[in-house]
Design brief:
The protein is α/β, with parallel strands linked by helices. The protein is built from 11 helices and 15 strands. The strands form 2 sheets. Strands 1, 5, 6, 7, 10, 11, 12, 13, 14 and 15 form a 10-stranded mixed β-sheet that branches. Strands 2, 3, 4, 8 and 9 form a 5-stranded mixed β-sheet that branches. Strand 8 and strand 9 form a beta hairpin. Helix 6 (175-182) crosses helix 7. The radius of gyration is 18 Å and the shape is globular.
Length: 308
């Protein structure tokens, strides 16, 4: 069983979409990554921080998925990170209404001793200096380090971000962020420029249009599964990352060919995430549902062709 360290927010969200709205519900990149990765037989731990207002039932939920929560610091007198957003009708764009950093403002991650030799490290979307500090704590060089980031860090901490990018194996970002990071409109050219920054593999997420995987001159594309209804896109990218990292931690194979499978697993799991608000769909996902969804992906993309 491979060990997986997940670093990211465990938080509260309040979400409004054309399909409805929620009060404070469970959210955070670390939460979505952890729930997604729990679909694989991996020994995972979340490194994060919450306040005294964070409900025990959510910690119990993570524990019930065999996720080690000893790395989640609880600041009794503090408040948990909170984000509120409203999605537009196209569900691709959104407005951030509230961001309260709270305990996250002074977050100094501490990797549990039992996980300092983890084979796979998944650095969720946080300040690049926080991501770097996690890598500094690893006693054995991980087999694979995956990093997720966003345009916010490119705006305010670009040099710190470039420094941590030098130390990773895989970066997962969306198409808009890839263009901002490199100044290139073509995603093929952008991926080449990101390779030159350090990562051996580049995953560019395109939301409802799937995901691209680049490695040197090799390229792979996995579509997103067309869905009749998308209720809430929150956490879909993190769910993708959790499926991607979880699959690689389980198989222990970090070749380009196996990463193709990891991209498909990530895409399949992300397709569940958007079907209900917040983490609700991911909390009770069955193995048979995942297998069935993977077969849908296979039928969607495979065909026989006769060349004339």
């Amino acid at each position: 069983m491979g060990k997986l360290v997940i670093v990211g927010t465990v938080a509260y969200d309040a979400i409004e979409t054309p399909f409805g709205k929620t009060d404070k519900i469970l959210g955070g990149a670390g939460t979505y990554i952890g729930l997604s990765a729990s679909n694989f037989d991996v020994d995972s731990a979340i490194v994060s921080i919450v306040g005294g207002d964070f409900e025990q039932k959510y910690l119990d939920l993570l524990s019930s998925k065999n996720i080690d929560i000893s790395g989640i610091e609880i600041v009794k007198e503090g408040k948990t990170f909170f984000w509120s957003g409203k999605y537009h009708n196209d569900m691709n764009s959104r407005d951030t209404l509230i961001t309260e950093l709270n305990t996250l403002e002074d977050f100094n991650p501490v990797v549990p001793e039992d996980y300092k030799d983890a084979e796979v490290v998944m650095l969720g979307n946080l300040h690049p200096l926080v991501q770097s500090s996690v890598l500094d704590q690893m006693t054995v060089k991980p087999k694979l380090v995956v990093l997720d980031t966003m345009n916010f860090w490119m705006d305010i901490a670009l040099e710190d971000l470039k420094n941590v990018i030098k130390r990773i194996d895989v970066i997962t970002i969306n198409d808009e962020e890839a263009r901002q990071l490199t100044g290139e409109y073509s995603l093929v050219v952008a991926a080449k420029k990101i390779h030159e920054m350090g990562p051996k593999y580049v995953v560019i997420k395109k939301g409802e249009h799937g995901a691209l995987l680049f490695h040197n001159e090799q390229m792979f594309y996995a579509p997103a599964l067309p869905l009749a209804e998308v209720f809430d896109p929150t956490g879909a990218g993190d769910t993708f990352a959790g499926g991607f990292a979880g699959y690689l931690a389980k198989t222990g194979d970090v070749s380009f060919e196996n990463m193709k499978n990891a991209v498909v697993y990530g895409s399949a799991l992300a397709s569940f995430c958007v079907e209900k608000f917040g983490t609700e769909r991911m909390e009770n996902l069955s193995h048979s549902e995942v297998q069935q969804r993977l077969m849908q992906f296979k039928h969607l993309t495979q065909f026989e062709i006769e060349l004339t």
